[in-house]
Design brief:
Strand content: 15-25%
Largest sheet: 8 strands, mixed
Shape: globular
Keywords: FAD, Flavoprotein, Membrane, Mitochondrion, Mitochondrion inner membrane, NAD, NADP, Oxidoreductase, Peroxisome, Transit peptide
CATH topology of the largest domain: FAD/NAD(P)-binding domain
Helix content: 25-40%
Function: Alternative NADH-ubiquinone oxidoreductase which catalyzes the oxidation of mitochondrial NADH does not translocate protons across the inner mitochondrial membrane.
Number of helices: 14
GO molecular function, one term: oxidoreductase activity
Distance between the termini: 36 Å
CATH architecture of the largest domain: 3-Layer(bba) Sandwich
Subcellular location: Mitochondrion inner membrane; Peroxisome
Pfam family, one: Pyr_redox_2
Number of domains: 2
Radius of gyration: 26 Å
Strand order of the largest sheet: 1-8-7-6-3-2-9-21
CATH class of the largest domain: Alpha Beta
Number of strands: 25
């Protein structure tokens, strides 16, 4: 271990300095020992990145796999790659993977934010220690498939920072796992006034806004109408994310807000707006159960289509105005601007078109996985849903394929042109789960909407839901965080301080 080697070096250095000081006076021994220790030559090669970027690999170097994105698909692919064969370079606007199934729990303090964020360096350690593997905090702007180059721009958000700059990375194999963007359907005001729930910083913003509204509503001078508006939480979208957030929020209101904000407990409520049925992919019996449980917990279900979003109210297509203090938008996902800009054949829905082996047929050595990709119509396969389990299994499959190709000598650019890719990717749905709050959840293990299989609801499903997600958390460190957070929340309630 690196820390153990450093400790041994420091101990030996102190011993030598101690013996030296016995014969030769040495002023400020502690400072000199630290200085000498810090200047010790590193036994490992220096990691140096040319200012212009990374050029093509030579025959003396390992072939380079560039991964665009750090979501479920990209991280699973990075984790599965054989680093004895490949160097791995990840380009992403975030340096961690988000465990999205538990993200809604962080908004109300059931879990802490670090419990759902897994650093990429822990998922694939070589990017922080090997000379040819790196992580770059940047966005990819353009792919040049003819020259095997990606054009990137650094991410330098914030005040008093330098302007972003461009650089290039040559690749031998490129994995596009850049994910998707929330669908707003072109509705005016959504981008400006609504919160999305896809990243850790989204959950942090929702939490801050929720607690701010709670405290403002308790201040003298607030009118009754304004108090009701501030404490009205509206969720648009009745999919698993919208339902789980509504359930967590209603549970937070019942268990914590009613106890600690007694003056406003009769004002705060949740409204879930959905154009059709909530949880449309679930079994009918489970959907009806979810509707009853949400209604029982105080969530108001409204069927309608949002026409316009103002700073303090939503306007539905029937003219109904719904005032809100917090608006969370969860209506599905679509292709990002980067995916739209790529000049490759697209699948139905605008995703990057792929074949049965997850390759982009029109570009050599380029693969696409996760939410940004979809099967071309020519394959005869349907576009898979934008689910974490789809992305994760595509990442695992692709890593295995690239490892096999690399062992056969096809890891370098244009070397796998005539190689067979083995069995095509086949997706088998493992089921769906959703939490409803108040120790209730849904578990639907059917193969498809019309398929047969086990479906459960209630407390037993809640135990299954928590157990399943606890085992799916990537590291033992975060599993421990999640388990401790759940235990402390159960005993002491949620932390409702605004930091």
């Amino acid at each position: 271990m690196a820390w153990f080697r450093n400790l041994v070096q420091l101990s030996s250095l102190k011993s030598s300095l101690r013996s030296r000081s016995a014969t030769t006076p040495f002023p400020n021994t502690q400072f000199v020992s630290i200085l000498q220790f810090s200047s010790q030559p590193n036994s490992e090669p220096t990691r140096h990145v040319p200012s212009s970027g990374l050029g093509p690999t030579s025959s003396k170097e390992k072939p380079r796999v560039v991964v665009l994105g750090s979501g479920w698909a990209g991280c699973r692919a990075m984790k599965g790659l054989d680093t004895n064969i490949y160097d791995v370079v990840c380009v992403s606007p975030r340096n961690h993977m988000v465990f999205t199934p538990l993200l809604a729990s962080t908004c109300v303090g059931t879990l802490e934010f670090r419990s759902v964020a897994e650093p990429i360096a822990r998922i694939q350690p070589v990017i922080s220690r090997e000379t040819g593997s790196y992580f770059f905090l940047a966005n990819c702007n353009r792919v040049d498939p003819d020259n095997h180059v990606v054009h990137c721009q650094t991410l330098t958000n914030g005040a008093n920072v330098r302007e972003p700059w461009d650089f290039e990375i040559s690749y031998d194999k490129l994995i596009i796992a850049s994910g998707s963007m929330p669908l707003t359907f072109g509705i005016h005001g959504v981008e400006e006034h609504a919160f999305f729930l896809r990243e850790v910083h989204h959950a942090q913003e929702i939490r801050r806004k929720l607690l701010l509204n709670l405290m403002l509503s308790d201040v003298p001078g607030i009118s009754e109408a304004e108090k009701q508006r501030l404490l009205h939480c509206v969720v648009v979208g009745g999919g698993p994310t919208g339902v789980e957030f509504s359930g967590e929020l209603s549970d937070f209101i019942t268990r914590d807000v009613h106890q600690r904000y007694a003056h406003v407990k009769n004002y705060i409520h949740v409204t879930l707006i959905e154009a059709n049925e909530i949880l449309s992919s679930f079994d009918d019996r489970l959907r009806h159960y979810a509707t009853r449980q949400l209604t029982k917990s105080g969530v108001r279900l409204v069927r309608g289509i949002v026409k316009d979003v103002k700073v303090d109210k939503i306007i539905l297509n029937n003219g109904t105005e719904v005032p809100y203090g917090l608006l969370v938008w969860s209506t599905g996902v679509g292709p990002s601007s980067f995916v739209k800009s790529m000049e490759v054949p697209k699948s139905p829905g605008g995703r990057i078109g792929i074949d049965e082996w997850l390759r982009v047929p029109s570009a050599q050595d380029i693969f696409a996985i996760g939410d940004c990709s979809g099967f071309l119509e020519s394959t005869g396969k349907p576009v898979l849903p934008a689910l974490a389990q789809v992305a994760e299994r595509q990442g695992k499959y692709l890593a295995e394929q690239l490892n096999r190709i690399g062992k056969a000598g096809g890891g370098y650019a244009n070397r796998a042109r005539d190689m067979e890719f083995g069995e095509p990717f086949v997706y088998k749905h493992l089921g769906s789960m959703a939490s409803l709050g108040r120790y209730k959840a849904l578990v639907d293990l059917r193969q498809g909407k019309e398929g047969k299989g086990l479906s459960l609801a209630g407390f037993t499903s809640w135990i299954i839901w928590r157990s399943a997600y606890l085992t799916r958390v990537l590291s033992w460190r975060n599993r421990l965080y999640v388990a401790i957070n759940w235990a402390t929340t159960f005993v002491f309630g949620r932390d409702i301080s605004r930091i």
